[in-house]
Amino acid sequence: MKSGVRLGGPALAWLCFFILAPLGLVLLISFAQRGIYGGIQWDFGAGNYSRLFSPETLLIVWDSLRLAFFTAVVCVFLGLLSAWAMATASERRRPWLLGLIALPFLTNLIIRVYAVKSVVAANGPLPFLLTLLGIEFDPFALTANSWLVAYGMVSSYLPFAVLPLYGAFEKFDFTLVEAAQDLGAGPWKIFGQVIVPALRGPILGAFLLVFIPCLGEYVIPDLLGGAKSMLLGNLITDQFLKARDWPFGAAVSVGMMGLLVLTGLLLRVLRRTK
Amino acid sequence: MVPMMLEIMGIRKSFEGHAVLEEINLRVAEGEFFSLLGPSGCGKTTLLRILAGLETATAGEIRLDGRRVDQLSPQARPFNMVFQKYALFPHLTVKENIAFGLKLKKVPAAEISKRCDRVLGMVGLSALASRRPETLSGGQQQRVAVARALVNEPKVLLLDEPLSALDQKMREHMQTELRALQKSLGLTFIYVTHDQEEAMTLSDRIGVMNRGHLEQVSAPREIYEQPRTHFTAQFVGRMSRLRGELVSLDGGLARLRLDNQVEIVGRPAAGAAAELHTGMRMEAFIRPEKIQILEEAANGGGRNLLPGRLSESVFKGNQTEVHVDVDTGGSLLALAAATGVPCAPGGRLALAFSPEDTFFFGESEG
User: Fold this and answer.
1) What global pTM score does this model have?
2) Interface membership of A185 toward B (CB under 8 Å)
3) What is the CATH number of the domain that holds B255?
4) Rounded to 5 degrees, what are φ and ψ at B24?
5) How far apart are CA B20 and CA B34, in angstroms?
6) CATH, residue A103
7) What angle do CA B79, B82, B85 make, to 5 degrees?
8) Could you give the dihedral angle defined by the CA atoms of residues A13, A19, A20 and A24, in that order, rounded to the nearest 10 degrees?
9) What distance in Å separates residue A80's CA from the closest CA in chain B?
10) pLDDT reported for residue A2
11) For residue A274, which of A162, A216, A199 has the smallest C-alpha distance?
12) Residue A63's CB: how many other CB atoms inside 10 A?
């Protein structure tokens, strides 16, 4: 035990210096005030936190939660199906499938998002196709909308769900599926009553792995959602880079962390009780 | 004759051009305890999985009481399977595991509960109904697996090496239990095992399998005492073997000339009579317990008599294994009662065995 502490020492020091200290600073700033010219004025109060509960901020929180939840659920569902398919594929094919899933990781996020953008762009292939087919559409709504954001989110975060679920499926005892078949269960019953309950732990893990970064995501909604879509990530970025209101930005960050911790605890309870 | 119930007709199976099962024909009667016995890779599990519908045969038919069932999905077949590693659902309790099949069939809840309680009682697990499978011992999990299959009242229960994960004592205990359960319910069991003792103990009939085909289908005693093929003879029980050349055929008996001109008399393999010809190389099989150990000068009394030198005797408690290098070449195993080894290693003695207990098989077979 003692030697364990000693071995972990450098990592712990790193953690304290580069993560806990800045976090403390953020916490401190969140109680300060914005200076008239955008600096930090060290008058402490909880005013930033009460601003968190203003209707417009709450709306942003709600939109962010909704998008992150939607993305995580879709990713976990698709992840389960693809991980199932991968784990049952022949030994020869598996590394290739795994490579395909990891492929997006090899491409820069911005480039991937711009690739999506260029498909729907005013002179891109999708509007061209729609015009060709004679389908009427609003070119401005097409280039930036919430479905596009959802698509971008799911496609970017899917590997985070697939990889842990694939690991779980590799260890999964597939005779359980055969036993369920033998007892009269069809494919969807097997999925819902055998696979999902047996993999509850990995499923919750994959959900969190997608949900947490999604809640703070700002690049994808910014580029694909246009000016209308404001989410927690954008709100925080804007406070630091545009509004120059660091204290409020810090307060939103702290609030988001609280939200994530709460989600984690909620899932933990969920896992225990069922 | 008992009306035949399960008929397996011309079942073949190949994986990627490689034949795993070649032309399996078999009839299993209602209420029969039928075992498929064979070494690993002989196709016995594949045949069971085809019966369960978990794999499809390349050719052939399966009929139950005259109606084809091989085109039905596994869900729709009136068969249930007990898996080698039990395959209990880890997230469900013992009782929920057992209720799984009935719930899918939309049986009313009250009846589900009643039927589950009844099978739990049958396998002696009533007290553990609300436990999770991982908290049970191997033997208990095994009983849950059997109960989960039985509760659906299948026409045929398929068991895939169900006892292979248990230790010796537990295995023997479960053998007795399974057999009693099968008899009391009058259910048809098809039981896959590589353990010949298990097959002998449990079965009404045994099908010995090798390389994708059935070598012999008979009652346990017949398998042991009247092996029809070279493979069955060497796979089931222990055998002492001698090699020689067929010199004459006379009705049911034949003479085999061993390497130094000594001749022994025995029975050529049943069914292979047409292919027998003098001069062919054959192998003689004798059960060790059918070989009598005599003093060197003794008279065989019309039996085959081979003198030799005792090379080793191994004390096994209730009996002693006696290895004898016979003068004709080769080593024979005989069994002596614990006190009955006539001489020390190196000493001379003679082995006697009757033609009735000596089986000749073509050397190339199996």
Assistant:
1) 0.79
2) yes
3) 2.40.50.100
4) -95, 125
5) 21
6) 1.10.3720.10
7) 150
8) 140
9) 18
10) 63
11) A199
12) 17
- pLDDT (0 to 100) of residue A274: 53
Give the gap in angstroms from C-alpha A184 to the nearest C-alpha of chain B. 4
Cβ within 8 Å, pair A183-B83: no
Alpha carbon A204 to chain centroid distance? Answer: 13
Contact A183 B101 (CB under 8 A): yes
Number of residues written out for chain B: 366
Q: Given B208, B233, B258, which residue is the final one in a domain?
A: B233
Q: Which of A176, A185, A193 sits opposite B75 (nearest CB)?
A: A185
- Predicted-assembly ipTM surpassing the 0.95 threshold: no
CA distances (Å), origin B127, targets A7, A78, B116, B120, B124: 49, 41, 13, 9, 8
Of the candidates A166, A126, A131, the residue with the CA atom closest to the CA atom of residue A142: A126
Percent of chain B whose pLDDT exceeds 90: 57
Give me the residues of chain A with pLDDT under 70, please: 1-2, 227-228, 273-274
How far CA A12 is from CA of A1, A114, A178, A261, B85, in Å, comes to 15, 39, 47, 21, 44
CA–CA separation, B220 and B197 (whole Å): 10
Closest residue to A194, CB basis, from B54, B74, B89: B89
Backbone angles phi, psi at B205, to 5 degrees: -140, 155
Q: Which two tokens stand for residue B30?
A: 């209602």
For residue B283, the enclosing domain spans 238-362
CA B168 remoteness from chain centre = 17
B48 touches B36 (CB < 8 A): yes
Q: How many domains does chain A have?
A: 1
Q: In what order do the strands lie in the sheet with B156-160?
A: B79-82, B156-160, B188-193, B33-37, B205-210, B213-218
User: Which residues form the domain of A187?
Assistant: 53-273
A76-135: per-residue pLDDT in tens?
999 999 999 998 888 899 999 988 888 877 888 888 888 888 888 878 888 888 888 888
Q: How many structural domains are present in chain B?
A: 2
Distance CA B134, CA B121 (A): 20
| Residue at which a domain ends, from B198, B215, B233 | B233
